[in-house]
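Comment thread on ticket #2218

A.B. wrote:
> Attaching the input chain for the structure job we discussed in standup.
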Amino acid sequence: MRVFTASLATETNTFAPLPTSLASFREGGCFPAGRHPDQMTFFAGPLWALRQRAPERGWTVIEGLVAGAQPGGTTTRLAYETLRDELLADLRAALPVDMVLLGLHGAMVADGYDDCEGDLLTRVRQIVGPGVVVGAELDPHHHLSEAMVSQADLLIAFKQYPHTDVLDRAFELVDLCAAQVAGRIRPVASVVDCGMVVVVHTTREPAAGFVQKLQALEGRDGVLSITLTHGFPWGDVPDMGTKLLVYTDDRREHGDRLARQLADELIALREQLDPPWLGIDAAIDDALAAPSGLVVIADSADNPGGGAAGDSTFILRRLVERGVQGAALGPLWDPQAVRIAFDAGVGARLPMRLGGKTSPMSGHPLDATCTVKALQPDMAMSGLAGTKVALGDCALVDADGVEVVLISRRSQAMGTDVFTQLGCDLAARRLVVVKSSQHFRAAFAPLAVRVVYASAPGSVTADLRQLPYRHIRRPKWPIDG
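C.D. wrote:
> Ran it. Output below, let me know if you need it in another format.
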């Protein structure tokens, strides 16, 4: 069997100020056909799974373009069309093939394209025809469009948030698609729109139990796969929202009933799915009142993993103004401040202007007297599912009593080593503020006596009623109550 695999992925926050360009993909990881490194990158799960499966099964695998960018604002038309056309050219060069497996995100929006994945899958189908099996792995924060479902034979999203199961879901995709090629199954899709948008934290109930139920249903009574589409609330496109996608083995009526049942169960849980949100000062107060040990405060609104700049100063400013001792914050995206810290050197004490550089959603820069405590050129952080995240040159500075990790390449907090590589001892901290919504939990939560979600200003705000939606289908809970 001949298999083609490739990847094109980013998550688009249509309210974010930073455009996603070709340079964004080059910085995030852009590997031409056959040049993917010997380590899995985040949206190349199908490729990596195929590298394990193919030798034992005698398959020929042709690897095309793999390109991924840090979540950001709308992708430029040049970036999307350039990378899309390169991937499609790789596919044409690989023909004939029996199977096409793609690593996608599902919430990529470009200038002129509200549904990049639907557009890409449609073009793939036009090239390979109806007889070739086409499958894709998705992030659960995708927009599930009719084009995506109709043009692919199988779509399987990560089930866990944080996304620790990238490779597990990739193996599922590979094995189910191979079974279809062999004629052992005939996948049929059933989709139900829940009329809402929720972000499902699978580290807590009731979401953990709901996802476990989905997994227990798979492989029984003709159910092949169940995907919970969380949706991506910060993408203002018609297909945004929470949905249930059930694949059965040629049992459409059963799939339709099951998708409706599961959607109704999730709708009944919706009020319980959101974590409690506290204002900035209330979050700090809660952290300081916690039992002895590390408290993690999530600055979700400034999460680069949701497209925010990652340079807001709202929480940092309050920590400094309140004179909170034993606090750390990061990673704060500020290449200019990093350059100044490198020029000054370790041990230097100097006035610095931190953050607040991208837009009003970043707040005002913080002027502080800083001591440069550590420098690390070309640093990388542990990511999810065994991946690595490049951060560029990084610095640790003490800003009027708060230790701040400064990075040159925008990213959210994932691994604790974003702090520890620079000598910031989290065990000695009273609290740490992380620029992340949920992915931090995999590494940080085991060290914490408490995790607090702060409601701060930003382009990934938790208060969706603040956002000026123009294109989503309404009504949609909780935006419309």
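A.B. wrote:
> Thanks. Noting for the ticket: The chain has 13 helices and 18 strands.
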